[in-house]
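Protein modeling request. Please complete all fields; requests missing the sequence field cannot be processed.
Requester role: graduate student
Desired output: 3D structure, token encoding
Chains: 1
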Amino acid sequence: MPNQTPAGKQRLEVKDLITIGIFTALFYVFTMIGGIPFGINPVLTFYLPLGCALLCGPIFLLLVAKVPKRWAITILGGIICFIMFATGMHWGMWLGYLILGFAADLIAGTRRYRSVRTNILAYAVFCLGATGSYAVFFIDPAGWTAAMLKNGTEQSYIDTMTASAPLWVLAVIIIGTLLVAAFSGWIGGKMLKKQFEKAGITA
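Delivered output (203 residues):
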């Protein structure tokens, strides 16, 4: 007899946690592949969130399709948060992933994780987590600098960032991240259309 429990109301099982772990590892790897080319350059580092959002749309959507339950996205955000913290990223970034991971979970849950469009929106919100560090950079540059120096960032790197950072860049970072994430999610939806149809996920 088919499971009649509504999607998003089921409890996470061990196999779900394993699936989340596997997809989180993939998510992190492709986040780094997309983001590192920007992060190593103090002028281009502001566009790191766009690079991080570029490749992970299909991974995010497939995770939600395979584990359409409450807390799956939150766990993804929590693990990414921990990795960012452990690797010395600014607190604005790892805290951003934690908070916006939870927000993305709530968004996807409004359609019981069964709407591609809503899941893409959730992915875009999730990707904004990477912009947290840069938001702090513009809001509290002294505090940001102190935190990054403590984490081992060189003063010359920070000086170059500061010299190439007009305030309008923050808007570009946020809007650009949303657009790139939406594009990545759209590509993911096209790539995984057959899998979504089998899982009962609608457009």
